[in-house]
Amino acid sequence: MRTLEMNSLEGKRLLALVRGGDYAHAGEEEAIDRVFANLPKRSGQWLLDVGCGRGGTADYVRRGGWGRVVGIDRDGDSLDEARSGYPGVDFVAGEVCDAPRLLSRRFAVVYLLNSFYAFEAQREALASLRRVAEEGARLLLFDYVDRGGFRHDPLVVNGRRILPHPIERDAICGELEETGWKLVSIEDLHEEYRRWYVGLVSRIEERASEIVGMGGEESLDHLRAVYRGILRKIERGLLGGVLLTGAAV
User: Fold this and answer.
1) C-alpha span between 41 and 62 (Å, rounded)
2) Is the alpha carbon torsion for 9, 46, 85, 27 positive or negative?
3) If DSSP codes are grouped into helix, strand and coil, which group holds residue 29?
4) DSSP 41
5) Whose CA is closest to 138, among 220, 246, 223?
6) Contact, 77 vs 12, CB < 8 A?
7) Are the CB atoms for 57 and 35 separated by under 8 Å?
8) Residues with Cβ < 8 Å from 232, sequence gap 6 or more?
9) CB burial of residue 152 (10 Å; 0-12, 13-18, 19+)
């Protein structure tokens, strides 16, 4: 049986259908506004969108006036669509740990919206991003957090672990310090994530026929299993969301 990868081009297309835009992160535009609420809008500053996917978030940030945006993602097919859809953003294909080699400038803001959990080498990713950050640059890390127990009771769908590396609060502060960042603030978003996933699960059902038309019954079954599963983990208190703000030192 074919297994759908939510981080694949097909998976991102289905998520865009359900979310109503080229977003692969919880909360869509509400979440972007929440993440950037305290960030001054400066037309001349450069921002790096890490794990930018199909580019919807990067373009929203650009249009919102926060600055000039570069997106980096390892999925070249998704970037082809991003370049076509959002010509106002620069997109670079490659792994996050290769960012210092691939990017020719430094950034005032580095942000990650539901991409950090997918990185196998999280410490190395943070170190790599510090090398492309200006002194004093802002780090905005919006992602899933293990509230205690998720590591030992993970979500597995069709033999594949979903959300393999959520943030662990006991470890992230040390990882930041070791890689040239300091923690400025950390805000729990557990209730927001629960609300966002209740809405997402509902929208999957509302658009079930369109999902089947695009990807078949297997895709609908997979979406249901993944996002109902995430919601159950949140409701059981095993998984949540967090907005972490850091600064380059």
Assistant:
1) 10
2) positive
3) helix
4) P
5) 246
6) no
7) no
8) none
9) exposed
Instruction: Please report, for the chain, the start and end positions of each structural domain, with discontinuous segments joined by +.
Output: 9-248
Give tens-digit pLDDT for 159-211.
999 999 999 998 999 999 999 999 999 999 999 999 999 999 999 999 999 99
Closest CA to 29 of 237, 104, 131, 37: 37
- Kindly tell me if the per-residue pLDDT of 68 is higher than 60: yes
| pTM to 2 decimal places | 0.95
> How far is Cα 162 from Cα 131, in angstroms, rounded to an integer?
29
Pairing of strands 155-157, 160-162: antiparallel
Q: Does position 1 have pLDDT exceeding 50, yes or no?
A: no
**CATH architecture classification, 9-248:** 3-Layer(aba) Sandwich (3.40)
Tokens of 69: 């945006």
